[in-house]
Amino acid sequence: MADDNNPQMNGADTTQEAPRGLQIKRIYLKDLSFETPMGVEAFNRAWKPKIDQELNVQVNNLDESHYEVVLLMTITATMEDKVVFLVEVKQAGLFNIQGLDKAQLSQVINTTCPQILFPYTREVIDSTLSRGAFPPLMLPPINFDAVFAQAVQQVKKKGESTDAPATDA
């Protein structure tokens, strides 16, 4: 009898809320490049490389709720201004994201999705280096929330600096 008082069960309320949230459809390696320009010379030296890391996120909107998010990571190791190795990884994920406003969607695409992809990227890099006879890097975790917040601040500063001369005139 308790079900008789529930308007959703007896059809009295026909409005349905759109589903909200994030669903992982697929995670895959989109591209991988590994180069060792020094060749054998790299193994005849003491291992004290300088490691540079570049990080980027690309988003491809496939339809109204499906997004391909690609985490691009480039690792360059140099010794004495010579490149020892270069690893470029594009780790991608297909995500179904629904029911979020524009700000929430941007936050999820630029923080949550890359956080999901990062462990896969790190494993690909370590595995590739191991196959190339180099020690693993043990990349530290990345705070994508902080990276996103910093990027938003930079955009705001650029917007303010371009607006400033126009308001003075």
State the gist of this model.
This protein is of the alpha+beta class. It is built from 2 helices and 4 strands.
Structure description:
The chain has 169 residues and is of the alpha+beta class. It has a domain at 18-134: Roll (Bacterial Protein-export protein SecB), CATH 3.10.420.10. Helices cover 33% and strands 34% of the residues. It has helices spanning 102-131, 144-168, and strands spanning 21-35, 50-61, 66-79, 82-98. It has a four-stranded antiparallel beta sheet with strand order 1-4-3-2. A hairpin with a 2-residue loop joins strand 3 (66-79) and strand 4 (82-98). Helix 1 (102-131) crosses helix 2 (144-168). The termini are far apart.
- In CATH's first tier, which class of the domain at 18-134 applies? Alpha Beta
The name CATH uses for the topology of the domain at 18-134 is Bacterial Protein-export protein SecB
In percent terms, what proportion of residues is strand?
A: 25-35%
**Can you write the helix and strand succession as a string?**
EEEEHH
Main β-sheet, spatial strand arrangement: 1-4-3-2
Shape, per Cα inertia axes: elongated
Distance between the termini: 72 Å
Radius of gyration: 23 Å
Structural class: alpha+beta
Topology (SSEs and partners):
Blueprint: E1 21-35, E2 50-61, E3 66-79, E4 82-98, H1 102-131, H2 144-168
Antiparallel strand pairs: 1-4, 2-3, 3-4
Helix pairs in contact: 1-2
Give keywords.
169 residues, alpha+beta, Bacterial Protein-export protein SecB, four-stranded antiparallel sheet, elongated, disordered C terminus
